[in-house]
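Morning F.,

Quick status update on the modeling queue. The single chain you submitted on Monday has been processed. Sequence for confirmation:
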Amino acid sequence: MGIIVGGLLARLVAVQFAYRGEPISFPMLIASAYSGFIVWHMGYSGSAPLIAATPASFVSESLGETIPLTSTIFSWWNLLAIVLTMVVVALTLYVIAPRSVPEKHIVDESIIAETLGKPEEFPSRTAADKVDNSRWLTTGFGLIVVTYLVTHFASGGSTTLDIVNWIFLALILLMVSNVNELLSLVHKAASNVGDILLQFPLYAGIMGIMTASGLVTVISNWMLSVSTPETLGLWSFFSAGAVNFFVPSGGGQIAVQGPILLEAGAQLGVDPSILIMALAYGDQWTNMIQPFWALPLLALAGLRVRDILGYTTAVFITSGITLGGAILTIGFLFAS
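Structure tokens below.
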């Protein structure tokens, strides 16, 4: 969701600059939107910390307990790392932004027309159409979900992967105008993620090969063999970044690497929350040069991977220093 919202905002900014007659690099704006993805796994929808906080997951079975989000996503050190990373990324993009914009990098007229177009209208010819166009239907279902969530938290329930999904569903139902708008948005979203849907089986096959062949274990164990309690988090970060090229799914990656990292952490006495977030940091880090998740954004913008790769590579370098430095610092703080 963050990628698409960022892409839409980038389009709006590009259109506003074009409307004022001020040139701005559209590929740079789209790269900036994608660069916001560098903090996704540190945030509320991060697969690894959510799975670690979910009862009956392999993490809770391995440790005998769950890892609460207050120890991972909402820990002081992770929140500080988010702020630092965002500042570094913003400064990086500011420094490398082109001062003179070639004509081919200005937003296309078709993008301007599409962005400024009138919102889709849905006629109400029949009673069924009136129901579908009524806001009360989606709002009603949204309030039902909200009621469930309030009851869940009031009774002492925790935030898990399922609960986060329910929260996003409630927000969607409350924000759309009616059922027809919801269906239209789903259809448009499906067309934007079509490339990802086609490639997921391929990457699932690669993940299966890497797991069955023991390659993931070899990569992880080699990096862990040179680790100390202070540096295990850093090497976990690097190994997660390497594996992400072949398994670009946060949920799939923790399933593959998680048991290995947790076992190593138990042997060295490292807090498992550090290793969960090290995996999350590494997964999001190499997304900057792994174009898999950029595909829907590029489709939305009508660009190619090479149009944004130069910008995202710079972000990859500076964010790598920031994220790696953060996880290394935490390793030393927790070990001391």
